[in-house]
Amino acid sequence: MEKTLTVINELEKAGFVSRYARGGAMGATFYVEPVVTFDLDVFVVLPTGPGALLSLAPIYEKLRSRGYQEEGACIIIEGIPVQFLPAYNPLLEEALAEARETTYAEVPTRVLSVEHLLAIALQTGRPKDHERIQLFLKEAELDRPYLAALLQRHGLEELWKKVKR
Amino acid sequence: MTTELERIIAAKEKRRRDLAALSFPEKVAIVVQLQKMVAPILRGRGREVRVWQIPAADERPVAAVASR
Questions:
Q1: Does pLDDT of A50 surpass 90?
Q2: Using CB atoms, which residue from A26, A33, A104 is nearest to B25?
Q3: Chain B residues closer than 8 Å to A138 by CB
Q4: Which residues of A touch B (CB under 8 A)?
Q5: The domain containing residue A159 runs over which residues?
Q6: DSSP letters along A29-81, please?
Q7: What is the mean pLDDT of residues A15-41?
Q8: Is the ipTM of this complex over 0.90?
Q9: Domain total for chain A?
Q10: CB A1 to CB B58 under 8 A?
């Protein structure tokens, strides 16, 4: 895992991504009991500016040039299938901007805040997202005022009321 | 609800809280153990999955960390 995160940090340092943070099941696992998953979801802000293409292709090209192989929607980086997901809406953009700085065995990295992970699960709305929300409610320490404000900002209050019923 | 059932539910909740409180590297080790357990079942259903190949140093004795 350290090596995988080091490679992703190098991508950020080299400008292939402007910013990244772990999300998905491994993001959730940071805050709650471990949940089984087979890939590492990495949300990214892609570089903007003159001539910049909002595409994951340069990331994949760079990784392929280093010998990492694609497998389905993932690319295997140091033994871990990684799925890069661009921030495609304002909630994800905010989640990345406010991601929590942390370390994994001394390697610096980021994870989305638990409140943003909950909001993303709410917005995505698959059965497994609802299960994850229940885990957050039972096991995670949520900043309730922060959560309420972000749900309001992103128009998720009605969905939230339904889930809490 | 019987007292015995309440005790079992409380113990389960405590175990979940204890697991949630583990360090992230300890949780990653548990995820890999879970992958090893689940992968044969998923492969039997025709789903291709890859158990993470991470160095042994990453994997701590899960039974030990989980039973704290």
A1: no
A2: A104
A3: 13, 16
A4: 1-4, 26, 29-38, 71-72, 76, 78-81, 102, 104-105, 138-140
A5: 2-164
A6: HTTSS----SSEEEEEEPP-STT----SHHHHHHHHHTTPPEETTEEEETTEE
A7: 96
A8: no
A9: 1
A10: yes
